[in-house]
Write a structure and sequence with these properties.
The protein is an alpha/beta fold and 475 residues long. The chain contains 16 helices and 22 strands.
Length: 475
């Protein structure tokens, strides 16, 4: 737990006198404030956190980091990053009060970085890639937690704000921390790695997500490569790389860390074969590592989940865990994440995969749908941030939809391309519904869903297909 003294000494020249005050939590949403919280006010595109400082204090927050005054009635301390040789003793004003900094973001990142540095024995695992970061993080955490006291970044706390917030959750008892690292452009993962100091880096795949920002697949690979470039030399540093993705394997020549490979290629350090997708009952496969050979079944959906399992198992092996511990983690019921099955209308099943979408993950979801019995309905929405490959990517998904779905509901301006391509590929017009938004999709589905149907709902978060699941799901 951080103290107010730590915060002031990290951000300013002040050393508070008098009774030390512990901070219970660090929040950026005033609604999450509680007794003794530190609220950090950010000026965003749509909301200015400075307008909610009073709300944070009313909910129990003790102190707020601000970039400008927020009220004449509130005490304020000016903080500077230049720390003199002789800190200035300072008696704190009565709480609540504000600490003014030049940049709330810089202040948060500095707090996270300094706090992480206080735990030199902590093993940090950074996970990046175009697809599968969160599922890998969750499953790796499930594996490590069989043997170690392990922290994980919550939700989508994988950026320049979320990651330092995760670092501030580190406690003295933690032995491992599993942190997701996302990016939009060059340099962002380098920054996150500078804050977190990971010793182990996991790279999933390099795909076309963020093409809008970086322009080429090679540029995306270079941005993801920043994680393995900063890892310490082996044996302390380990880069866990996907042998089935040439762009990921190219990173092996750009790290000083020991390279551990995983995939479906028998040349990998850890590989799998005999893969059997059993629909909603999960998948089974055989793991190979050296002379070890294990046949296992895990409650993850879709053949693509084999790679997720391999990544988590690789983390366990690098951490020195036994196969019994690793398999117990892989089989954990809490391992199934993004794609979940919920009851739908008239005895149907809805596969909710609405968190995000990319060409790679959309194809993987359709492949899962193909493994399921009954009539198959694909509800496919816009995939965002694809830049110059936007049209070709949506048409690719359209062609695969034609080969899998009995009915296709294409949602949104970009989703229209999926529907048009499915028709061009031979899907009957009567089986394709091209609609403008989630509300129209709900109307169509309420009419066409029958007992026993399997309904996949897939799109980028911005497409808001979660509204479809909320309206039709009965789970």
């Amino acid at each position: 737990m951080q103290s107010l003294g730590f915060i002031l000494e990290t951000l300013s020249e002040y050393t508070p006198t008098g009774e030390e005050l512990d901070i219970s939590s660090v929040v950026i949403d005033s609604r999450e404030s509680e007794a003794k919280s530190l609220f950090i006010a950010f000026s965003g595109e749509h909301h200015d956190g400075h307008e909610f400082v009073s709300d944070a204090f009313n909910r129990g927050a003790t102190v707020a980091l601000v970039e400008r005054p927020v009220g004449d009635e509130l005490s304020i301390i000016d903080a500077r990053f230049s720390v003199p040789d002789k800190p200035v003793a300072y008696k704190l004003p009565d709480t609540p009060f504000c600490i003014r900094v030049e940049s709330s973001l810089d202040a948060l990142q500095r707090l996270g970085q300094v706090w992480r540095s206080r735990f030199p024995d902590l093993r940090v695992i950074g996970i990046t890639g175009s697809v599968g970061k969160t599922t890998t993080k969750e499953l790796a955490h499930a594996v490590l937690s069989q043997s170690y006291r392990t922290l994980k970044s919550e939700g989508n706390y994988n950026n320049e704000i979320g990651l330092p917030l995760s670092l501030l959750q580190i406690r003295p008892w933690h032995e491992y921390a599993v942190l997701e690292m996302g990016m939009y452009t060059q340099g962002e993962i380098s920054l996150l790695a500078e804050l977190a100091c990971p010793q182990i880096g996991v790279v999933t795949i390099v795909g076309s997500v963020h093409m809008e920002w970086l322009g080429t697949i090679e540029a995306i690979a270079n941005a993801k490569r920043e994680l393995v470039e900063v890892l310490p030399p082996g044996p302390e540093g380990v880069a866990i790389l996907n042998i089935d993705d040439p762009l990921v394997m190219n990173m092996a020549g750009h790290t000083k860390a020991r390279v551990f490979t995983y995939g479906l290629d028998p040349k990998a350090d850890l590989w799998a074969d005999d893969i059997d997708s059993m629909g909603l009952k999960g998948i089974s496969f055989t793991l190979h590592s050296g002379q070890d050979r294990l046949s296992i079944h895990v409650p993850l959906l879709g053949r693509h989940s084999v790679h997720t399992s391999l990544r988590a198992a690789a983390v366990g092996l690098v951490a020195g865990m036994s196969w019994d511990e690793i398999v117990a983690g892989l089989r954990g019921l809490k391992s199934q994440l993004r794609l979940v099955a919920v009851p739908g209308p008239r005895g149907s099943v809805i596969l909710d995969d609405t968190y995000n979408s990319s060409p790679e993950s959309a194809i993987a979801a359709l492949n899962l749908l193909a493994d399921l019995p009954g009539r198959r309905i694909a509800v496919m929405g816009d995939m965002l941030e694809l830049g110059p490959v936007e049209e070709s990517s949506h048409r690719l998904v359209g062609r695969r939809s034609r080969g899998v779905a009995d009915l296709l509901v294409a949602v949104g301006a970009r989703g229209r391309l999926i529907g048009e391509e499915a028709i061009s590929a031979g899907m009957p017009n009567r089986n394709v519904y091209i609609v403008e938004d989630s509300e129209e999709a709900i109307q169509v589905l309420e009419e066409v869903i029958l007992s026993g149907d399997m309904v996949l709902v897939k799109g980028s978060h911005g497409a808001r297909l979660d509204k479809v699941v909320a309206a039709l799901g009965e789970g």
